[in-house]
Design goal:
Length: 491
């Protein structure tokens, strides 16, 4: 009895000490029961949130990764139930964004366009994909409630493109084993830098964990290590410029009166067939052709001919955000150019701040803290890192786009869907298309690649209309990528 009491007191003492130092337990779980309606179906589900260790090569616990796992209760055969593993980006961002605003069972309190509302909090998400799949949201080390636990641990184990992929593949293996999900169809979804992560994970899981996926969803993808320097980098910005100018009504009436998705293919064709070759040729382009292209780029971008001419077609995104609405005394947002900002002065070449990000942090930060404490009963003194300390980040040897292609080539069951917002200036939609073209130049994998565009920005799901459409696109992607019973994986 004394020994039991001693152990209890020891555990209490450790808990108080760890809490005081804001150190999470390496291995923990809190389970709660809930009800929801998704896609018109009413059902019960279980939420399990906690931490799972990260071990080094010697078997020592060096860090812990926090996760939240949602599983529908009325499933008769879990082996046939898809599992979606969800990551956000940064690098250094927690999984809060897609967790509380996109695919999960709860939504933060915002208006139909995504702007913050008070009182802060959460509500049911009737558009969640929980009707067709279970979901686990993962916070990589030092994001959310995840932390490095061993002060002497080498940070290079976690903070780099390939290190991140390697330890998270091991972590996923453990999670899938612990939760008996090896037989389930499995999907990865990543947003922003999370697309770099899941693209690399698709191959790492196959090669190092012998785990084969059914699908990868890339939300607002990065360049995935696919180079686009010089003329390609310069020209590829124009379709995004055109979309944003269209939204803010900065175009001529003949363009403004057309539907966005009918107008953009024209801009894309001009970009590839005329602007890109001209930028590549530099001063060798004859004066008349150059002047014609200047006028056309100005017409599509909403910028003046003068500024395009002065910059030799090379309009940086930061200059565009500052210039487009300069005459109105406003800037446009980086991650979502529907948002407007006010700078200290109208002069200059870049905005003072990201107009959209301050709005998002305004609504997400109170919501995620409220949600874990009040609804998931996860009580801790550890701070939820919206953005955590993960730098310097080693970006060398990023071949994640080609890794995803290799994973698809080796696995006939693996499908990919890209979701992009037309008004995203950080990971723009046209470069997302360019990724797909360069990943698969032969076109042999194109039947398993799909692109979806939305009339919003980086987090397209913040706009209610796109939240509904984007979740339905994922739902259909999952259904369409599930093989028929006894279908062999072969070409």
């Amino acid at each position: 009895m004394k020994r039991v009491l001693s152990l209890v007191l020891c555990c209490i003492a450790f808990s108080i000490s760890a809490s005081a130092q804001r150190v999470p337990a390496a291995d923990s779980a809190v389970v709660t029961k809930h009800q929801m309606t998704a896609n018109g179906q009413r059902f019960a589900y279980t939420a399990k949130t906690g931490t799972q260790p990260v071990w080094d090569n010697s078997g020592k616990v060096v860090a812990t990764v926090h996760y939240t796992y949602y599983s529908r209760d009325d499933v008769q055969n879990r082996d046939k139930r898809p599992l979606v593993i969800s990551f956000n980006g940064g690098p250094g961002s927690g999984s809060v964004w897609m967790h509380l605003a996109y695919t999960g069972p709860r939504l933060l309190n915002i208006d139909d366009e995504g702007y913050p509302l008070q009182p802060y909090g959460v509500k049911e998400n009737p558009y969640s994909i929980m009707d067709v799949a279970d979901i686990v949201y993962v916070n990589p080390v030092n994001t959310g409630y995840s932390r490095v636990l061993d002060e002497k641990a080498d940070r290079n184990l976690f903070f780099g493109t390939n290190a991140d992929i390697k330890y998270l593949a091991e972590w996923i293996n453990t999670f899938v084993t612990r939760n008996n999900r090896w037989a389930s169809p499995k999907y990865l979804i990543g947003e922003s830098y999370g697309t770099t992560r899941v693209s690399g994970l698709a191959l790492e899981l196959q090669n190092a964990q012998w785990m084969y996926l059914n699908g990868v969803v890339l939300v607002s993808p990065t360049d995935l290590g696919i180079k686009r320097e010089g003329a390609v980098d310069i020209a590829n910005r124009l379709p995004y410029f055109a979309a944003t100018a269209w939204f803010h009504k900065r175009l001529s009436a003949d363009l403004q009166n057309r539907d966005l998705e009918e107008f953009l293919p024209e801009v894309e064709k001009f970009t590839l067939d005329e602007l890109l070759p001209a930028v590549a040729r530099g001063h060798s382009v004859d004066a008349a052709t150059k002047e014609r292209l200047v006028k056309q780029m100005a017409k599509y971008s909403g910028l003046s001919e003068t500024i395009i001419r002065q910059n030799n077609f090379d309009i940086s995104t930061s200059l565009f955000w500052k210039e487009l609405m300069r005459d109105k005394g406003m800037t446009v947002g980086r991650l979502d150019s529907r948002y407007l900002g006010i700078d200290f002065r109208d002069g200059g070449e870049r905005p003072d701040y990201n107009a959209e990000l301050t709005s998002w942090l305004h609504s997400f930060t109170p919501a995620i803290n409220y949600y874990f404490f009040n609804e998931l009963n996860y009580k801790t003194d550890v701070k939820y890192n919206m953005f955590g300390p993960v730098h310097p980040w080693d970006r060398s040897n990023d071949k994640t786009g080609l890794s995803l292609r290799q994973a698809m080539a080796a696995n006939p069951f693996l499908h990919v869907m890209v979701q992009s917002g037309y008004y995203d200036g950080a990971c723009d939609y046209f470069n997302a298309k360019y990724n797909m073209w360069q990943m698969d130049p032969s076109g042999k994998l194109s039947s398993r690649m799909d692109f979806k565009g939305y009339r919003s920005g980086h987090m397209m799901y913040l706009r209610k209309e796109d939240l509904i459409k984007a979740n339905e696109d994922i739902r259909q992607f999952i259904k369409n990528s599930l093989p028929a019973p006894d279908q062999p994986a072969k070409y």
